[in-house]
Write a structure and sequence with these properties.
This protein is an alpha/beta fold. The protein is built from 17 helices and 25 strands. Strand 19 and strand 20 form a beta hairpin.
């Protein structure tokens, strides 16, 4: 088996050859995909990319995303995926933090011109922007036989312990943190994940989860390279388009958010026959009611509906089993994957007894290499004994299934995206009329949770909720935008001046 991510493409080319690897605007066999990666690697080498240099990808799911990622990594580069919902200033922070010289993006996605979002921003390290829907083909054609051979030489020097990517995750401090993963960590974890969920070589996997997230990237197309399944990149959560593709391509694997399946199960009985090819789905990142799991199995015919638990910092930690009941899939996260340790720890760092709650700690080969250039945050997250302190509260039942019951960290999940109030508050404080602000998550039937901001306006600065929401949409990713704004004269604080958010949760 391969030990690096581009090694997975080379492995798949040898093992699966002319079988379809990617079905997008055109179809690539596994052999053709690896050939395209080798050529693109030569182009990156010609452009001056060397080992350890970071390259950002800010684009929707596509075959080009996969080829670019593998090519950068083939010559020893480090891929930094950017969330397509980020605004220019949010992207600027990451581009500068990682000193990124090359950005791969698109000129148009959902009416957004990404290069335009960066206009007039201070980006001292960025030297080249390549667009998949513009000059990508010209860039690829810059490779010649010599550069491709040199790229092959660079690939031969690639080590399994080299950093493969840096995925940025927000946090309680307000600034995003870059999670560093190695090639070996990614390959080992997601090969094991593929085996546990039962991903097969004959599967046709429609990847709705975005590639900038580890689910779409590693539990998505990387898992397909490791197993021989066919990749169907889906750039937009368009239910009608997804339904048509399921029927047309006989899709067998479809992970996705609860909102997708809520729509599919509401279809007329005749329409549901269109989805009869589906056999496997994996939920995650949001709570799913047991009745939805049951309806997915009974009405859509998805025999295996599984769930799991993980963080960007550790990839996957637990996964359920195919024969678990709908209740168990909905209320637990499954059992720990083989080879890792999980405990629920008390305040003294001791494992609590079965059934009692504690902070979830994870240790093993799946844990990140640390936060990029942030030793303090790394030391706070991973202790001297190698335990990753997740910030989640959970307990084990008598059968060894982990249940997540609460969060230590001040975070909520909206439509499958982690939202950190500290980061949102930091952005909102730039609004000229806001003196103080605090954000909490509140329940929402469709998205699970959404943000609610309590705003103390500046004196002589009139402000209303509509203005704040409109301003927010221009300055932060849409999933971070508070759906509710409450204007108030003061925030409840304790003696130390810290906002007592628990007093606001019932409002």
């Amino acid at each position: 088996m391969p030990s690096t991510i581009p090694g997975a493409a080379a492995y798949a080319a040898k093992k699966f050859g002319q079988r379809t690897a990617v079905a997008d605007h055109q179809r690539w066999s596994f052999f053709d995909l690896n050939e395209a990666v080798c050529r693109a690697a030569g182009a990156f080498l010609n452009a001056g990319l060397s080992k350890g240099v970071c390259v950002a990808i800010w684009a929707p799911n596509s075959a080009e995303w996969i080829i670019a990622c593998l090519a950068v990594q083939r010559v020893g580069g480090i891929v930094v995926p950017l969330n397509t919902r980020l605004k220019g200033v949010e992207a600027q922070y990451i581009l500068n933090k990682c000193r990124i010289p090359v950005l791969l993006t698109v000129n148009s996605f959902l009416q957004i011109n990404y290069p335009q979002l960066l206009k007039n921003l201070n980006l001292p390290y960025l030297k080249q922007i390549i667009t998949f829907d513009g000059d990508w083909r010209e860039f690829i054609d810059s490779a010649d036989e010599a550069s491709i051979r040199n790229a092959d030489d660079a690939y031969a020097l690639l080590d399994a312990n080299d950093i493969s990517d840096i995925l940025f995750t927000s946090g309680t401090t307000g600034d995003p943190k870059g999670v560093m993963s190695s090639h070996a960590q990614s390959v080992d974890v997601f090969l094991l994940w593929s085996q546990r969920v039962g991903l097969r070589g004959e599967d046709r996997y429609l990847i709705v989860n975005p590639f900038f997230h580890s689910f779409g990237y590693k539990a998505g197309w990387l898992a397909c390279l490791l197993t021989g399944a066919t990749i169907y990149p889906q750039p937009v959560l368009d239910v009608e388009a997804i339904a048509g593709k399921i029927e047309r391509e006989k899709i067998t694997v479809l992970p996705g958010p609860p909102t997708l399946f809520q729509t599919l199960v509401m279809a007329e009985p005749e329409q549901k026959k269109r989805f009869s090819s589906l056999r496997l789905s994996i939920t995650g990142a949001a709570s799913v009611p047991p009745i939805l799991i049951a309806r997915m199995r009974e009405e859509l015919g998805i025999k295996n509906v599984l769930t799991g638990y993980g963080l960007t910092e550790c990839g996957v930690a637990t996964i359920s089993s195919a024969d678990d009941s709908a209740e168990r899939v909905a209320t637990t996260t499954g059992k720990p994957i083989p080879g890792i340790e999980i405990i629920c720890a008390d305040e003294n760092g001791c494992a609590v007894p079965t059934g009692e709650e504690g902070e979830v700690w994870v240790r093993g080969f799946n844990v990140m290499r640390g936060y990029f250039e942030d030793e303090e945050a790394t030391a706070a997250a991973i202790d001297a004994d190698g335990w990753l302190h997740t910030g989640d509260i959970g307990c084990f039942d008598t059968d060894g299934y982990l249940r997540i019951t609460d969060r230590l960290k001040d975070m909520y999940i909206s439509g499958g995206f982690n939202c950190y109030p500290a980061e949102i508050e930091k952005i909102l404080c730039r609004h000229p009329a806001i003196a103080q602000v605090t954000v909490i998550g509140v329940a929402d039937e469709r998205l699970g949770e959404v943000g609610k901001a309590f705003v103390v306006p500046r004196r002589d600065h009139p402000v209303d909720s509509i203005n704040i929401i409109e301003w927010s949409r221009e300055n932060m990713a849409n999933y971070k935008v508070p759906r509710y704004i409450e204007i108030t004269n003061a925030l409840p604080v304790n003696a130390a001046g810290k906002v007592q958010k628990y007093l606001l949760r019932g409002k």
